[in-house]
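User: Hand in any protein.

Assistant:
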Amino acid sequence: MPNISSLKMVTLNMGRCFPGIERSMDFLANEQWDIACLQDIRETYIPELTKIFSGAQYFVPMTKHLIGGERVPVGIGIFSWHLPFCFTSADAYVGNVSPVFDLEG
C-alpha cells in the first residue's frame, strides 16, 4: 500500500489511441503510477490497461468513432495500480451517459 500523502498521478489524453499507443502504454506501465486519469481511450484497450492497473478500473464510453472501418466506443477512465475505488459515477454534460451516441454517424 502506498503512502497516501505521496500518490503518483498522471492525466493523459490518449488521442483515441492512434499512432503512438505503444509509447503511451509503455509510459503508463514503466512509471508505476498510483492513479491514471485517461481521456480519449478506445474501449478495446481496457484489457491492456487492466493488466497495468490491477487495483481498480472505471471506464465510461462517451461516443463512438469510426476506427479501422468499425464503430468503436471511445471514452474516459480512471485506473488505479493498487488502490480500490470507494465510489464511482458518471454524468454527461448534456443528455444521458447511456446509450453511447455515435457523433460521426
The beta strands are 9-13, 35-42, 56-67, 70-80. The helical segments are 21-30, 46-52.
